[in-house]
Amino acid sequence: MVGLIGKKVGMTQVFDDTGRLIPVTVLKVEPNVVVAQRTVDRDGYSAVVLGANPQKESRMAKPVLGQFAEGIQPMRDLYEFRDFGRECAVGDTLGLDVMQDVGYVDITGTTKGKGFQGVMKRHNFGGGRKTHGSKFHRANGSTGMAAYPAKVIKGTKMAGRMGGERSTVLSLRVVRIDQENQLILVKGAVPGRKNAVVRIRPAVKRSMIG
Amino acid sequence: MDAIKAVEAAHVKENAENFRIGDTVKVHFRIVEGQTERIQIYEGLVIALNNSGLRRTVTVRKLSYGVGVERIFPLHSPRVQQIELVRRGRVRRAKLYYIRNRVGKAAKVPELVRRKER
Prior knowledge:
The structure holds 2 protein chains of 2 kinds. By secondary structure, chain A is mostly beta strands. Chain A is built from 3 helices and 12 strands; from the N terminus they run E-E-E-H-E-H-E-E-E-E-H-E-E-E-E.
């Protein structure tokens, strides 16, 4: 499936034809370069490696530099897209024209780091009453049983680090594509802060025609 | 940031705000009913302007059969066809919410008379 690497610019609102305000996220897709190709014969699977955000050679480690063929500028962000479904050769640049007649997209990114958070925010626990003599407010409550199993089961939901993890938002409607300014507007929110790197692909759970 | 401004600028109407707080205006509002489309005119007193840029809104108050009605119009909405200035008002506030608590003559805003400049 085709895909692109973009950057989150920020959110705003636009009017549609009927005069309703739609909340949109603006994403910028600077030209993506095909850095390498994975083939079934050699790698056991088929994929295309796209790169975005050119980086100075001096800022890259030599082992990382090794994967850029001659004549290709080193890129900071590299992502593989499996079964690309579009003919391309190493060195080609891809832009938003790839997404031209796509109606809905999935966006993958890294969520904002929230730090150490309690169970109510992190796992949507209900918590207890604030008043009427209650002494149970935002604590996690019981974490397990008694003499058997005599331990806390692995993976029990507790307080801890939240955010900063990979997240995919499915089926966001494409509101507009601005080829000239390399912008794509999608309805709704997208993981990550401003300037965060996101990956865009046609929606897998929704028809591709808008 | 500039990209956001560029996206918004495409929707912003120029000179949409040709009135001030305290003015009486006629809002030409497009209403779509199924297939047909018509323009409804809503006349009233501008009691508040909120937000900025694309999200700028105007609150217009009028009395309809003795009942106060307030409508908030997004200034840059494509459904707001035109805002016609009927009468200028002389006010000393940016928000005229006190009008809500007044009845009859006390709820009137005096007309703004501009003296000729010498």
